[in-house]
Write a structure and sequence with these properties.
Mean pLDDT: 80
Order of helices and strands: EHEHHEHEEHEEHEEHEEEEEE
Largest sheet: 8 strands, mixed
Structural class: alpha+beta
Helix content: 25-40%
Distance between the termini: 84 Å
Length: 285
């Protein structure tokens, strides 16, 4: 007797019977496995691997071709079919057909939104926020409709954030009385909010030309005292008071450093002219 091989599987017995009838009409003998078990309880189907269609090994290749031709199975493809693709929604978009193959054989399902998951994790409350996902039963594509307004909102948020960061840097330059050249390589731009307190970090690298401009601005700063060294004993009287802040630029072995003597606001700036980098931090209690 010739060996039997698995041709395909189905979730429900009637689906398997339809496929078997089609194969047998083309002269291929079939045997069903797990049919009775699934008939007793349909929920067992996934647990036992579904209703299996077995055929002779010599008929397997032809059987696969017939199932593909009859639309029972999809041909193998390297394309990722389960990926959900965004589709821009306009006034001319027909939401009743697939935007990829124009088929009307589509379905719709609800998927939990990120708001739902975050709300449950953070405060333990389930918010019924869902997003609609569409699927085409002919081309197996999945998609969601998006309005262009989302892009506008993202652009506005990013613009506001960039403006806020630039404003914060300008405020640090004004407060510490120095100048950051525009053409620097920013390696860190991070804001950490801790309820009433916050920390802001801004690191960058600079070339020789930018380093010269940065150094000159420090030397002409009202906070700079060239005779104070990094290893000097810093008393309260050494700091320069200006605009409600006590600050001091000092020379170090690698470059320059800015220090503050303020319990509420703290600025810390380290400029390394040898490596061509700088690190700025601002914090508030």
């Amino acid at each position: 007797m010739e060996n039997l091989v698995l041709l395909t599987t189905f979730t429900l017995p009637h689906e398997a019977h339809i496929a078997c009838s089609y194969l047998e009409s083309e002269g291929i003998e079939t045997i069903l496995q797990n049919e009775l078990t699934v008939q007793v309880n349909n929920f067992y189907s996934n647990a036992i691997g579904g209703v299996k269609v077995l055929v002779k090994e010599s008929d397997a290749e032809r059987g696969v071709a017939l199932l593909i031709e009859g639309g029972f199975v999809k041909p193998y493809t390297d394309t990722v079919l389960n990926e959900i693709e965004p589709v821009m929604l306009t006034k001319d978009t027909n939401q009743q057909v697939c935007p990829f193959c124009q088929s009307a054989n589509i379905g719709r399902k609800k998927v939990m939104n990120l708001k739902t998951i975050l709300g449950y994790i953070l405060i333990g409350v389930f918010f019924p926020f869902y997003k609609k996902t569409y699927v085409c039963f002919d081309c197996d594509k999945k998609w969601i409709f998006r309005k262009r307004g989302y892009s506008v909102v993202v652009i506005i948020v990013l613009t506001v954030f960039a403006t806020s960061c630039q404003s914060r840097i300008s405020n640090i330059e004004k407060t510490c009385d120095f100048y950051i050249p525009k053409h620097v390589d920013v390696t860190r731009d991070e804001y950490q909010d801790m309820f009433q307190d916050y920390c802001y970090y801004y690191d960058f690298n600079f070339d020789k030309e930018a380093g010269t401009a940065l150094t000159e601005s420090i030397r002409y700063s009202r906070f700079y005292k060239p005779y104070i060294q990094a290893d000097s004993l810093l008393s309260d009287s050494i700091y320069v008071k200006s605009d409600d802040i006590k600050g001091l630029w000092i020379k170090t072995s690698k470059g320059y450093r800015f220090l503050t003597n303020d319990n509420r606001h703290d600025y810390s700036i380290n400029v390394d002219t040898i490596k061509g980098c700088a690190a700025i931090s601002e914090s508030s209690d």
